[in-house]
Structures are given as structure tokens and as C-alpha cells.
Write the C-alpha cells for this entry.
Amino acid sequence: MILAGVLGDPIAQSKSPRLHGHWLARHGIDGAYVPLHVRPDDLADTLRLLPRLGFAGVNVTIPHKAAALAAATSATDRARRIGAANTLTFTDDGIEADNTDAPGFLANLDAAGDWPTDRPAVVLGAGGAARAVLVALQERGLPAIRLANRTEATAAALADELGRGIATTPLAAPDLADAGLVVNTTSLGMQGQPPLDLDLAPLPSDALVTDIVYAPLETPLLASAKARGLRTVDGLGMLLHQAAPGFRRWFGVEPMVDGALRAAVLA
Ligand SMILES: NC(=O)c1ccc[n+]([C@@H]2O[C@H](COP(=O)([O-])OP(=O)(O)OC[C@H]3O[C@@H](n4cnc5c(N)ncnc54)[C@H](OP(=O)(O)O)[C@@H]3O)[C@@H](O)[C@H]2O)c1
């Protein structure tokens, strides 16, 4: 039996066991994917022990993503650039780290059809998830990225660190002119949080608006974008797509991201 799982603190809210469980059942794989509540002080010991217990790899989530990268034997350039890992694979040589949030974010947008990659993107928020989104947009070669955050110094530091076309813009009134994409990576709009208050009127009518918050699926930002007639993409697909590379590496099958998976995760 092949084992994999997800490490986090807390972990009960994670949808990853249901997601991978759907793929395991669908492909008839003799395997299991389990949630593991691991506190920060126990991460290093846990990562040493899991391969010896037969685990092929694990996902890591809050608060372990930076520490997981530091604990790895090798890492992809993308994970290093983002400064965080969410997918670890155990090999004879040690721990391989990757960050699949960035390709997951792009795959979710691409699945919705063409979107303007030749115009500036506006990214709201400069936390952990924003780092993956920014690196993804740089990889896709967007001509400019405007970064807005409540704590402006955090956005300025992140723009300096990641460089390549990122400039800051105020969160209260971000520069939306000519933008082809708006991404919310703040936690605003999440269940229990205030909505993100953003006037979308200056945004061109062919722009795409996406929110990486997926609880609720239709955030107030997406609802107001729809009301303006703009195209929207919700954040659940990012979660589904980021899971696929780990599943392929650990269980040896390329899984499908489709309506059945979405329904299983939402059930
Ligand atoms: N769809 C997916 O697969 C996926 C993946 C990862 C994360 N997410 C979601 O993305 C969201 C952010 O996650 P994260 O890991 O980046 O969190 P994080 O590192 O804690 O960053 C939170 C961000 O939200 C901003 N923020 C928080 N409260 C705010 C407020 N009241 N007003 C304005 N800005 C506020 C913070 O600004 P300051 O810097 O000013 O504090 C920061 O930019 C979460 O809802 C998470 O569930 C989704």
C-alpha cells in the first residue's frame, strides 16, 4: 500500500484527504492519503519518520510551507523563488520539495479559456499565497504586475525581492486601468472575514477577475465582478490543480481535474 498525506496545524479543515481519496477510489489504487496534525516543533522529526513508515510523500500546509522547503534535500527553482514548498516527495536521496500552488493557479485560469496575458495584472495581498501567484504570473511572462496590500511595506519588500516587473499600487484604490487580470489573494471575502471593498468600474470589460479564496465559492468580489458583466474564476480549481503533481509522483497515475472531483470536494 502506498501512503501519502497532508501535514498542517490545524489540519481538520483540509479538503486534501477528500480530494486525493476521490482519485484513489476512481483509479482503484491500493493507497491512502491521511490528514496529520503536526505542530511546528514536530515537523523535522515527522519528516524523518514518515518515509520509514512507508510514505511516498506529503503535502504541507499552513504553517509549515517555509520550514518544509528548509528541511528538503533538493527543491525546484520555483519553490526556492516562492520561498515555500507544498509538495514533498521522499526518495532514496532524501526529500524533494516543490511548490505546485503556482502552476495550480495558472491551470485554474487556463481551464476557463483564454485570458489577457499581454496586459498588466493586479494582485491584491502580499502574504504566503501571493508569493506563488506572483511567481506564476512572472513565469507566464505578464508585462507588468501591480501589487496592493494593506501593509504597504510588505508589498514593497515583496516587489523588491521578486523583482521582474512588480510595482506597488494602493489597496484602497489600485490602478486597474488597462489591467487584464485581478487576483484577490487576501483573506478578505473568506467566510467570517469582511468583504474586499473594491470598485471594479475602471477595469476594462474583457478583464478576468479571480479570487483564490474558495469558501464561499462566490466571494463578494466575484459577485460584484459578475454584476459588472466581467468574467470570473473561483479559487477551488487552484486547490484541485495544485494537488495533481503530488498524486502523480506518489501514486504513479495522472489524475483528472473535472466536475466529479469538484463535486466530491464540495460534498
Ligand atoms: N485556492 C487555493 O488553492 C489557495 C491556496 C492558498 C491560499 N488560499 C487562500 O488565500 C488566502 C490567503 O492565504 P495566505 O496563506 O496568503 O494568508 P496570509 O499569508 O496570512 O496573508 C493574508 C493576506 O491578507 C491580507 N489581509 C488579511 N486581513 C486583512 C484585512 N482585514 N484587510 C486587508 N487585508 C487583509 C494580509 O495583509 P497584511 O500583509 O496587511 O496583513 C495579507 O496580504 C486564504 O483565504 C487562503 O485560504 C487559497
